[in-house]
Amino acid sequence: MVRFEGTDTYVATQDLRVAVNAAIALERPLLVKGEPGTGKTILAHEIASGIGKDLITWHIKSTTKAQQGLYEYDAVSRLRDGQLGDERVHDIANYILPGKLWEAFEAAEAPVLLIDEIDKADIEFPNDLLLELDRMEFYVYETRRTIQARHRPIVIITSNNEKELPDAFLRRCFFHYIRFPDRETMQQIIDVHFPNLKHELVHEALTIFYDIRQVPGLRKKPSTSELLDWIKLLLVEDVSPEVLRSRDPAKLIPPLHGALLKNEQDVHLFERLAFLHRRERG
Amino acid sequence: MFFSFFAELRQAKVPVSLREYLTLMDAMQRRIAVFDIEEFYFLARTSLVKDERHLDRFDRVFGHCFKGIETLGDPKAEIPEAWLKKITERFLTEEEKKLIQSLGGWEELMATLRRRLAEQKARHQGGSKWIGTAGTSPFGAYGYNPEGMRIGQQEGRNRSAVKVWDRREFRNLDDTVELGTRNIKLALRRLRKFAREGAAEELDLGSTVKSTAHNAGWLDLKLVPERHNAVTLLLFVDVGGSMEDHVRVCEELFSAARSEFKHLIHFYFHNCIYDAVWRDSRRRQIEQTPVMELIHTYDASWRIVLVGDASMSPYEIEKEGGSVERWNDEPGEVWLRRLLDAYPRAVWVNPVPERYWTGTASIGMIRQIIEDRMFPLTLDGLDRAVRRLTR
């Protein structure tokens, strides 16, 4: 049996591994939720590379319809071809454009199918896919053909919680909530991404990072991806651990904070805190 | 054993169905998790829980159902004496310290602890001798103090299975407890009502086909405007006085509401609605908006949300001149009713926890005026409020 054990660029905690392996073994979709920036989308990429399968991604937008994942009938171009007298017009199959799900069903080897940000779509979207994901087949009305999955793809679905998903849909999925990594796991994640980093720098950076997350009232708490970006910046700018450690109250805002704080209210909040801090000292 | 676990989950209001239970059984049969309680915990969690809000409830039930299954390991070697001593000294009263002395002092106590750990085979709760939780024995969690001298649950010990669910990391995702900006946004999103407005840029297939047919087969494209959120909302927020305690949560509500609606207009008031409200707290004395003007400006299709703790003296509601700010010719109740008459779709959201509502007379009065459309400022309450608004 195929088992996912994490990859050398992705730290999978035990609970995540169990969830992924359960989904693979039982051939059910895995629904992944979690704070933005904790690696939901990356997970599908890593599963694909971890177990050596192809990845098919289907990014969902607010206008995406379930039908688009199956196939689309391009009526407009058929109409045009009809008016121009094109030969192709006699076969309706010429105007059936397969969607991502079809693509995944037809693949020679079971691929990993990522349905990214399912909550962006209309509220009925998950319901429309119920049967297709359950039975892994659908019917093309125009050509009177049933498309059946040659191998059941491994389906990973991510959600940012913008909409509640229907119960019937949830019941068919495994669910995993990626919780924000604790310091130990975060250390591992950084080690994986920056193997040659000075230990001190990581220590100071993590301290500042978790301090920032503790600040009450932040609009957007920085997450893993922001931390990695920030460390990358620190490396490029060659900021030394001493600078990070110097926690000078006048410089309460950490260097290169642009990577961590993403809106001006949060930066203001920090400036105000720095100001209060200085006043207390003074 | 598993079925009672399943039943208890349902009792704890974790929405699990038979289908999920069968999935779990299926997964067990395929040996995805065997001989490891921790793996079983993760597997049960991934197959039975479908929403992070229920994770904490799940953890509690799991901890309850499977207590005694996990092994204690061998903690003898791993509890540093100095650490225990330090913690205990910090929390013990003089009396208790004397009691320890009477037991023979620290060394003796530690020796007893070792002996008992050796004697004890399973996890234990209650009672007065064994190490466990909630007992009166000098050892174990929740015994001396709420933070506890937690044997088996502190950082630094081997990561035993107990910890994972006993840590209850998902507590703040439970929807009846905490309210973050993201949560509020989610709740408010229910209010969205889409309508077609603006530039025509989407293909309207139906009328295209129709008009193409009318056109004797020549293609005639028809477009319709995209759908937009068409809900309009007036938000009234109580500021100052007793609301100070709720500033943070109200700010969150406000910032979430801000980004969710195109047509959201906010006003501030103090304690109760009188003849005028204001838009900028710093200039409240200079720039006020008369409520009558407001009623004439915005029609009845607007929905209104009042946010306030409704905690004030009853005079502020029912007597003229009762306002703490300045003289009011008509009582607050009259103004409030006027507003409610103008806007039939209204709710009052109260940051005071629901269980304290009966304790304050003015909350009862406001509830009566607003016809029981008062909801607590929790995710669940907001959800109910929004549902009420969309009716």
Can you characterise this structure?
The complex is a heterodimer of chains A (282) and B (391). Chain A is of the alpha/beta class. Chain A is built from 12 helices and 9 strands. In chain A, strands 2-5-8-1-9 form a 5-stranded parallel sheet, with helices on both faces. The radius of gyration of chain A is 24 Å and the shape is elongated. The mean pLDDT of chain A is 84. In chain B, helix 11 (247-260) links the parallel strand 5 and strand 6. Chain B has a 5-stranded parallel sheet, covered by helices on one side. Chain B has a two-stranded parallel sheet with strand order 1-2. A two-stranded antiparallel ribbon of chain B has the order 3-4. With 391 residues, chain B is of the alpha/beta class. Chain B has 16 helices and 11 strands. The radius of gyration of chain B is 30 Å and the shape is flat. Chain B has helices at 2-11, 18-29, 37-48, 55-65, 81-91, 94-102, 105-119, 161-166, 181-189, 205-214, 247-260, 291-297, 315-318, 332-342, 361-369, 379-390, and strands at 132-133, 140-141, 194-203, 223-229, 232-238, 263-269, 276-278, 288-290, 303-307, 346-350, 374-376. Chain A binds chain B through residues 14-15, 18-19, 21-23, 25-26, 28, 30-31, 33, 75-76, 79-80, 83, 161-164, 167, 170-177, 179, 216-217, 219, and chain B through 15, 17, 19-20, 23, 26-27, 30, 32-33, 38-39, 42-43, 45-47, 49-52, 55, 164, 169-170, 173, 181-182, 186, 189, 205, 212, 217-219, 248, 251, 255.
Describe the SSE topology:
The complex is a heterodimer of chains A (282) and B (391).
Chain A (H helix, E strand, L loop, with lengths): L13 H13 L3 E5 L5 H11 L4 E5 L6 H5 E3 L1 H10 L11 E3 L1 H7 L5 E5 L8 H11 L1 E4 L4 E4 L5 E5 L8 H5 L2 E5 L4 H11 L5 H16 L9 H13 L4 H5 L18 H18 L1
Parallel strand pairs in A: 1-8, 1-9, 2-5, 5-8
Antiparallel strand pairs in A: 3-4, 6-7
Chain B lengths: L1 H10 L6 H12 L7 H12 L6 H11 L15 H11 L2 H9 L2 H15 L12 E2 L6 E2 L19 H6 L14 H9 L4 E10 L1 H10 L8 E7 L2 E7 L8 H14 L2 E7 L6 E3 L9 E3 H7 L5 E5 L7 H4 L13 H11 L3 E5 L10 H9 L4 E3 L2 H12 L1
Parallel strand pairs in B: 1-2, 5-6, 5-9, 9-10, 10-11
Antiparallel strand pairs in B: 3-4, 7-8
Helix pairs in contact in B: 1-4, 2-3, 9-11, 9-16
